[in-house]
Every structure is written in structure tokens, then in C-alpha cells.
Design a protein that fits this description.
This protein is of the alpha+beta class and 156 residues long. It has 4 helices and 7 strands, in the order E-H-H-E-E-E-H-E-H-E-E. Helix content is 38%, strand content 32%. Helix 1 runs antiparallel to helix 2. The chain is globular and about 40 Å long. It comes from Nocardioides massiliensis.
Length: 156
């Protein structure tokens, strides 16, 4: 059984640093150079973490499986449209292949509906074949592809 628990405020700074580092790692598979990756990370940090804080309306959760933290989820309204957006989601390796990712995404869709959104959007790198396959099985459709990343959307 999975559950989501808000990450405590005192852990948000560490989470933010890890999230930006993971974003940079993901961009490395896109063919961008180090300078471009660094600029993307700086631009994203300024946009998504104004004054170093989580943007209004955004939430970050620990993903729990049987009360054990097995990943995290960052969601909020899209900055680019009307979607409820999955800014980042990660399931620890030892918990993969057990339906945790699927359960998290089903919970995201419930959250989106509760908040009045009609669609959920996310971005996934082309290199993340397993995640992309799961999203497609759940009904997400690629609506745009840029530099080794696909923007996927599911209409609810």
C-alpha cells in the first residue's frame, strides 16, 4: 500500500538541491553541453524556486510503501498551461517493478481532479524507457518532443 506524506519544511532545502542535481543528470542524455545544462538548471531554479522557496501551489511528498520512504513526488499547477504538472517523481530502485509508480500516478490523477484540473502533464527523457512505457500504458500521450525529452499529457 502506498501513501504520500508531505516532506517536512526542514528537509525541503536538501530535497531541492537533490532535485536540481537529478535534473542536470537527466539533461546529460539530451546532448546538451555542460554550459547549456548549467544554464537550464539556473533558469529552472529561478523559475520554480522563487527566492529559494517552493513555488506557491506546489507540493512535495515522500512516497511511502508500508511506511518506508521509497521515493518522492513534486506536483503543482503547470507554469505553461492548465495541466496539473508532475515536476518530478522518483521511485527508489528497490521498490520498482512492484506497481509503486503506477499507484503514485493514479494518486496524482486523483489530486488533479480534486484541484479542478482536466489534464496531467509531465516531461520524461527518451533515455528513461521504463518510465515512458509506464506513462504510455496509463494513457499519457506525447504532445511535444525537444532535445531528448518528451512532454506527455493525459486528459482526465
Amino acid at each position: 500500500m502506498i501513501a504520500l506524506r508531505p516532506i517536512p519544511a526542514e528537509r525541503l532545502g536538501d530535497w531541492q538541491r537533490r532535485s536540481l542535481a537529478a535534473y542536470a543528470d537527466g539533461l546529460r542524455s539530451s546532448g546538451l553541453g555542460a554550459g547549456e545544462i548549467g544554464q537550464h538548471v539556473v533558469d529552472s531554479a529561478q523559475l520554480l524556486f522563487p527566492n529559494g522557496r517552493l513555488r506557491a501551489g506546489h507540493e512535495v511528498f515522500d512516497v511511502l510503501v508500508d511506511d518506508e520512504v521509497c521515493g518522492y513526488l513534486w506536483v503543482g499547477p503547470s507554469l505553461w498551461g492548465d495541466d496539473f504538472y508532475v515536476y518530478d517523481v522518483a521511485v527508489d530502485e528497490h521498490a520498482r517493478g512492484r506497481g509503486v509508480g503506477r499507484a503514485v500516478m493514479e494518486t496524482v490523477e486523483e489530486m488533479a481532479r480534486e484541484r479542478g484540473h482536466r489534464s496531467v502533464g509531465l516531461t520524461v527523457t527518451d533515455a528513461n524507457v521504463a518510465a515512458r512505457g509506464m506513462y504510455e500504458l496509463l494513457g499519457y500521450v506525447e504532445v511535444e518532443a525537444v532535445q531528448g525529452r518528451g512532454f506527455l499529457r493525459k486528459v482526465l
